[in-house]
Specification:
alpha/beta; Lyase 2-enoyl-coa Hydratase, Chain  A, domain 2; 265 residues; six-stranded mixed sheet; 2-enoyl-CoA Hydratase, Chain A, domain 1; four-stranded mixed sheet
Length: 265
């Protein structure tokens, strides 16, 4: 029996579906999975036919974070360099997702723990099954949240809740995560992937350049003044206004018909 790839990649109708595929390990990360996801995101960035990305997990979990069997100090001759693991595996993935000028949607089909939780939160639009839980599990093993966790959590839910989630390691139910603004929606378990793919399909025929500019502008807002952000909006709107999609959008509006966006500059 051949070994299954750690990541399944399926592309159809403008959507690239990336499925973490280590279900026997709750899709926890090892080097092979990290490298495969980095490579797949590079393809998503370079292929103009891909206009939306969906990330999900195989089996009963989304992602349990790092496979601790690969980072067990008792099996090493010296203490592991977890900073190196972040630099090689996780940080490049988070940077790719945030920089990708296309919508990245996430379907959290089960537990999202540790780096798995923060991988989901790095995506642009997150759906979660109602039975799913987000767990900042790091402190249970003497660590702090990584993969952007300490950056994203306070921005999404505030400092008080971010600190409490990180220090108590309490599981956060999907409904609560939605109520707090941590994710987009909590949906019935058997609908989470279908709902995510449905929205991805809508975005895949939309104005991709505008989506990319929206993403970059919203992400930039937390780190600059209103004055600088007004300049950024001016510059980005100049880019958007010169796209074929703007001309098509205006024409479709005036002609009272659906727009046919091309998603190109």
């Amino acid at each position: 029996m051949s070994e299954q790839p750690p990541l399944l990649v399926e592309t159809a109708e403008g959507i690239c579906r990336l499925t973490l595929n280590r279900p026997e390990k709750l899709n926890s990360f090892n080097v092979a999975l990290g490298e495969a996801l980095q490579q797949a995101l590079d393809v998503c960035a370079s292929d103009d036919a891909i206009r939306a990305v969906v990330l999900t997990g195989a089996g009963r979990a989304f992602c349990a974070g790092q496979d601790l069997g690969d980072r067990d100090p008792s099996k090493m001759t010296e203490a592991p360099d977890l900073g190196s693991t972040l630099e090689r595996v996780y940080n490049p993935i988070i940077r790719r997702i945030r920089a990708l000028e296309k919508p990245v949607l996430c379907a959290v089909n089960g537990v999202a723990a540790g780096a798995g939780a923060n991988l989901a939160l790095a995506c642009d639009i997150v759906f979660a099954a109602k039975s799913a839980k987000f767990i900042q599990v790091f402190a249970r093993i003497g660590l702090l949240p990584d993969s952007g966790g300490t950056w994203m959590l306070p921005r999404l839910i505030g400092e008080a809740r971010a600190k409490a989630l990180a220090m108590t390691t309490e599981p956060l139910a999907a409904d609560t995560a939605a109520d707090w603004g941590l994710i987009w929606k909590a949906v019935e378990d058997d609908q989470v992937l279908a709902e995510t793919l449905k929205l991805a399909g809508q975005l895949a025929v939309g104005p991709t350049v505008a989506y990319g500019l929206i993403k970059q502008a919203v992400q930039a807002a937390a780190d600059q003044s209103l004055d600088k952000h007004l300049d950024l909006e001016r510059d980005y709107q100049r880019i958007a206004g010169r796209t074929p999609d703007y001309a098509e959008g205006v024409a479709a509006f005036l002609e009272k018909r659906p727009a046919k966006f091309r998603g190109v500059r």
